[in-house]
Amino acid sequence: MEKILIVGATGSTGKRIIEILNNSQSFEPVAMIRKEEQKEIFDDMEVKWVFADLEQDDLSPALKGIDKVIFAAGSGSKTGPDKTTEVDEKGAIKVIDAAKKAKVKKFIMLSAMGADEPSQHEKLEHYLKAKATADKHLKESGLNYTIVRPGGLTDDMGTGRVKISEKLDSLGEIPRDDVAFLLIMSLADPLVKNMSFEAVEGEEPIKSAMIELSQS
User: How many domains does the chain divide into?
Assistant: First the structure.
């Protein structure tokens, strides 16, 4: 069973990922937390956790024994530039570097639609620039990777159906549930290897959409 470090485990999307992986026969989630009081959440779920702070710590100990990483941390698009830079850019780069040192097999990055052209989205420009810098660092790291760039995240119930492409022709929204499944499906070694793709809600089942994209 592969150990999967979830960075951003206490966030809305991170919690969904943990819940799904916790019922998996192939993957064992390990939650990365930075506050003492967060232990209880994962102890109650019988999920392993590790202490680490994106903004401060040497992250090498958190990667010990880890097979793959899902980076689902984010300051949020409404956060100011300083916090965004610390978490979405510098924090992500620290995890990528630690993952490379630990020789993890695959790194799955939760990015954002528009990260390939931040200047086209004035209100989100600082957020998308931070995401773009982290994405670039991952691509150049030598790690096997998948970068998932969803549209606007909603708390609607997931449908299991999406529209995905390396570049979509229009913006859209997608439930966090479906984003969590996209990130988890990306753990499968042959799927979307060394690819980045955009995702919004759509009509095609997630699994077949990802297989199709992988073969394109």
Answer: 1
